[in-house]
Amino acid sequence: MSYQKPEKRENRNIDPNWRVIPVYSPSGERTDISVAELDKQIKLWLFDADGTLRRCTVEGQPCPNKPGEWELIPEAMIFLSLIDWTRHAAPECGVVSNQGRVEAGHLTESAAHDLLVDMCDEILSAMDYRWRYFIFIMMCESNNKEHPHRKPNPGMLLEAMRSSMVDAADTIMIGDMPSDREAAKNAGVLFAWAQEAF
Fold this sequence. Notes:
By secondary structure, the protein is α/β, with parallel strands linked by helices. The protein has one domain (about 20-195): HAD superfamily/HAD-like (Rossmann fold). The chain has helices at about 35-40, 75-80, 110-125, 155-165, 180-185, 195; strands at about 20-25, 30-35, 45, 55, 70, 90-100, 135-140, 170-175, 190-195. It has a five-stranded parallel sheet, sandwiched between helices. Helix 3 (about 110-125) links the parallel strand 6 and strand 7. The longest helix is centred in the middle third of the chain and has 18 residues, at about 110-125. The chain is globular.
């Protein structure tokens, strides 16, 4: 099944009790739910990086190759601020990102990882959670579509759930590409389009 990226929605409410987003089950069933209600259910939030949490500032380039070539997406930051990361038994948060430009020779594995670390540090700094929270990072450097960790394959999502000891029913993936949607389906977790959630 192929998935089409939805159009970006406008005029979103910044109250988590009133901000309602579409969430899709692995079978494709859509449920509209408030962020506050979703936050009560989810124990593991997984986010794609490029096009979801950050965007490349170099025209015509899909992903950053070095520092200074990216910026956080403001709507993503607003969304992240709606989740109660400080409550008792606070949820886990991770980034699962295809970084095939490593294998293509555009940047090294360590450079790609450092760029993701810088992104997470900036998110935490902006949210004032630097010393109270962390975001774990998983990335796949391979361009091989058969690689088990390259989305739409579910390897990174399954590993994230194993590491966090969280069940699929309590996990959500948020991304902007059909490969993110397919990876969520293959891992048996909930999914939300960044374009609809943010």
